[in-house]
From TrEMBL:
Its cofactor is Zn(2+). Belongs to the zinc-containing alcohol dehydrogenase family. The keyword Isomerase does not apply. It catalyses: a secondary alcohol + NAD(+) = a ketone + NADH + H(+); a primary alcohol + NAD(+) = an aldehyde + NADH + H(+). GO terms for molecular function: alcohol dehydrogenase (NAD+) activity; S-(hydroxymethyl)glutathione dehydrogenase [NAD(P)+] activity; zinc ion binding. GO terms for cellular component: cytosol. Its EC number is 1.1.1.1. SUPFAM superfamilies: GroES-like, NAD(P)-binding Rossmann-fold domains. Gene3D superfamilies: Medium-chain alcohol dehydrogenases, catalytic domain (3.90.180.10), NAD(P)-binding Rossmann-like Domain (3.40.50.720). This is alcohol dehydrogenase. Residues 6-369 form the Enoyl reductase (ER) domain. GO terms for biological process: formaldehyde catabolic process. It comes from Gordonia neofelifaecis NRRL B-59395.
Amino acid sequence: MKTKGAILRELNTPWKIEEIEIGDPKAHEIKIRMEAAGMCHSDHHLMTGGIPMGGFPILGGHEGAGVVEQIGEGVTDFEVGDHVVLSFIPSCGKCRSCKAGVANLCDFGAMLLQGEAVSDHTFRIHTADGEPVYPMTLLGTFSPYMVVHEASAVKIDKEIPFEVAALCGCGIPTGYGSSTRSGDVRPGEDVAIIGVGGVGTAALQGAVIAGARNVFAIDPVEWKREQALKFGATHAFASVEEAMNEIGNATEWGMCQKVVVTVGEVFGKDVDTWLSITAKNGTCVLTGMGNMMDNQVTLNLSMLTLLQKNLQGSIFGGANPKLDIPNLLSMYKIGKLKIEEMITRQYSLDQINEGYQDMLDGRNIRGVIRYTDADR
């Protein structure tokens, strides 16, 4: 079928809305009519080259929610009409990682940037001229239709608004899990959240719900600091340097047992700064993405060893998507998790470049593309 999508044809150029061709679902695949797509910073990394895809053109988008329209051969877990969230990391349930309880490291993840469908290693999406298109994490939610492997979809409650559900494809479980799973925040611990955009605000809520004593939100944007206090932060600062004395005084200079880094782009030179507010035997969780070509890290190795600190990477917040996405949405439904309040503005697909500029300018916690018939 012919539809349209937000395409990148080269680095450091704006998103362009183009006509694309979406193929029919093959074995173990489903076709989805998209209703909403989250605008995550990771898709901006496609534009800068921080996340290198297998080629161009690229169809962006890896957060989204919609309705199943067609199912391929062998699909048993979905029916036409089901509401689903797209999980940016698929979960096959069969590989060693899935069986070991770390479904966020599913073996299908090795294929996410190659563009070829996991079912048969061919391309599902083509341009109007017949060029293969590389969809972000084998999804491409910046299009009103998608064909994806069933391992990349999670069935959800039909009462959940699509714009809310969309954020649970990446940002909510990534942030929440960075605190509760990768960080393992315990009641009474002191926690710092570095960067309080969409992922950081979810991490902040995770720390609060887990019972943290003090939650220090650190972000250079004043408006985001104000919002962080509304989401449960006890303190808010513009920088680690500004926060240092206050964190020290509030923790009797024990510092933070957990530091969760959810900035839009991680730089190796900043790692030691984040470890400086991490307590003895504490954990600094790196969730924000750095450039894949950046392998230089500033780190005081002696202090890392002598104070027995932990530096922990985190992808998808350590989440099990098939379990955690419905659980987080159930928490939203009863009012325990604020997701709707994180959506600062909704955009049309044609406004995608405006939406990303708002993100870069610090105007949004999370922007969402909401699809209408005009987009199809």
